[in-house]
Structures are given as C-alpha cells and as structure tokens.
Amino acid sequence: MKSLVDMFDLLVKPSPAQKLFLAAVRASMESYFGADRRRVDHALQVCRYAEELLTYIDADPVLTLTAAYLHDIGIHEAERKHGSSAGNWQELEGPPVARTILTQLAAGDELIEKVAEIVANHHTPGAVDSPEFRILWDADALVNFAEGLASKTDGQIETILHRHMVTEAGLRLARSRFLADSGDTEDGR
Ligand SMILES: [Fe+2]
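That is the input. Now the predicted structure with fe (ii) ion docked in place:
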C-alpha cells in the first residue's frame, strides 16, 4: 500500500501533508539526537540551506529535506561502535537508523530506500547521481565551510569552492557567503 507521502506528486513546494511528514522527521531526528544539540543544530542548518537550494533546483523536496534532516543520523552509532565519527563509519551506521525512523513514520519503501542511499553515501563525492544528493552535498558544505574557511584567503576559498560545490546555485550561495567581494547577490539567479 502506498503511503500518504507517495500519493503526492513531486512538487517544488511541499504540500501540507508533506510538511506534516517533514515535521515528524525533524521531531524524530531531534528526539534521536537528544541532548546532542550540536548535531540537531547542524541538521537544521543543512535543512535550511537545502530549502534555499530547492528554490533554484528541480528536485523532490520530501526526499531532499528528509535526507537533510537524517544525513548525519549514524554519527552516534559510529562513535559508539567504532570510536570515530569519520565519514565512512557514518555512511555505514546511518542507513539502518534512518530506515528505522522512517519506517516508524510510515514512509513509503521508495522514499526510505532513496534516503538510505543518500545517507550511505553523503561523504562520497558524486556517489549518487541525483539533484537531491547534490543539494544535500552543497547544503552540508555551506554549513561546514562556515567554520572551515575562516583562516583562508579569498583566492584559496575560491579554489576550494570551485572544487567542492556541485550545483551552480550552491556555488553562487557559497561565494556570496564566504567571499568578501563575490560579485554575486544571494537572490540573484
Ligand atoms: Fe552534515
């Protein structure tokens, strides 16, 4: 049987039912991370950037935002089982947790598998050929670069961004955020 989420066409903007589902994903992520506020805040920031990129890039908003909420969900299990939050352990430990959460929320099988695929690859460049994966990739980078680029020169930042960002909108947003004089405006297309 199709879930409620699968019954909706893939619209650029989530429908009211899809928004309810996404709010439930967010609540599950917050409850799973519990007192680990840093992880919750990171997921919420990534989600905000993903929402912004969705206004420029044609992609499934439910898949994109569900993946954004859950992309780092394996980090606690990675630390507990392997003593490390390294990307490869997160990729290994994240999908089972994401599947459990989404199954509890009665998500459709297709959505669960696509989210699990993104979670399983979110530290591997170009691993999934989809706009949803690319949006998650760039949204995660936009959050992580806010800390990582502080000591770099504009020239170095330009090089790093061009190597790392995989969507035009993501690159433009990153340049406007991290370069003193990017020549870009944030709302420019
Ligand atoms: Fe992340």
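The domain at 5-178 is CATH 1.10.3210.10 (Hypothetical protein af1432).
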